[in-house]
Amino acid sequence: MQTLAMVSLVVKDYDEALAFYVGKLGFTLVEDSFVPEQNKRWVVIEPPGAGGGAKLLLARGANPEQISRIGNQTGGRVFLFLYTDDFWRDFNAYKAQGVEFVREPSEMPYGTVAVFKDLYGTLWDLVQLKS
């Protein structure tokens, strides 16, 4: 058995990324440790109620190439898919927090979906699958 445990997300600044993901989206901070030999932090977050699902490692861009990828790690495609058990609860909460949706909610054969941007422009699908 294998499990996808973590995905790195390149960010400009740890604290501003935490303010967005924890403060606006309600993610949980799992770990925030300083790694002195590399002069960086190991910052791990997860969606609320994730219960063992994949986590995000917030990785600060450390050189020009990494910095150039912030907000565009997939060439303008949706990068991450956030599944929810209550689409309208989360959609409305995110809107109230000022999260920008670039594609409004729509009903698809698989469920309800909308696309939002994080603070750097990374695209996310917010999805509630049909039961």
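That was protein one. Protein two is written in the same sequence-then-structure order:
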Amino acid sequence: MIVVMKSGATQQQIDHVIERIEELGLRSHVIVGTDRTVVAALGEKRDGAKQALETGEGVEKVMPILAPYKMASTEVKKERTRVQSLNLEVGGNRIGVIAGPCSVESRDQIMDIAYVVKEAGATGLRGGAFKPRTSPYSFQGMKDKGLKLLAEAREVTGLSVVTEVMAADQLDLVVEYADVLQVGARNMQNYPLLEAVGESGKPILLKRGPSATMDEFLLAAEYILKTGNTQVMLCERGIRTFEDHTRFTLPLATVPYLHQTTHLPVVVDPSHGTGKASLVATMARASVAAGADGLIVEVHPDPEKALSDGFQALTPSGFRQMMVECRKVAAALGRDL
């Protein structure tokens, strides 16, 4: 349930409500809005809890949270969440763009692409140091060397480094170098990992699993949010369907639906969502038109020689053109990119 405090409620009154919530065996989470403060009471239902809380001084009303995802729901927080990391902003009026190769392959490769995407207007640099691959014989990433190269690229460009964490035992190493932690589609329901990345305090980019429903996706985000980390971005990267003309099916109705049900910002990945470089720019434009708060796009200096996912990576010139086109769509909607 949520305890809505009266406008002008004092900190002492808020603290008293928090104390009462914890006395009832529930966990409190404070959300400070522009007009009033809301205190969420999380945990299993307790008989009499609503009545016990609504009599508190400074309390306006106590309301049950109907959605199964409590902290992610707009019932708890009406205002849109903005996630910020260095110059990367996702969730405000500006559409954040994260771009770079699927995997870090060499110093020259990542440095070249970092300069390209920065010049074109991206504010985040993506690149896998640890790569989850379907085949155990495929390139698995440069691991710690890749992380160091990403950090070096950040130093010279100012781009926020976004990279994937595959397991909890990698977390300390990745946190040392990354600005945003990505949880990949394969790990969307790896609940111990979700809790671990949440406790890191870093912004999180959570990718939807290819067979996950919206409720499953939002409940996965809930595992991160319940640690107290509110800096969570939801990433639609395509789902599995009967279609085979694209790698996945990219359902852009996800964007407005999530905006109706959650306060968390929504990022779209048109690279994985289509699996074909020729379709990426078009779907990026469509994502912006649908209201996406951010894009994450694969870019490689020479896609034909890429060690992973070259078939869906844009060339530098293709990325520049995509950015020009997406800016026009964003401007028509009164947004910046």
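DSSP finds eleven helices and 14 strands in the chain. Keep this in mind for the problem set.
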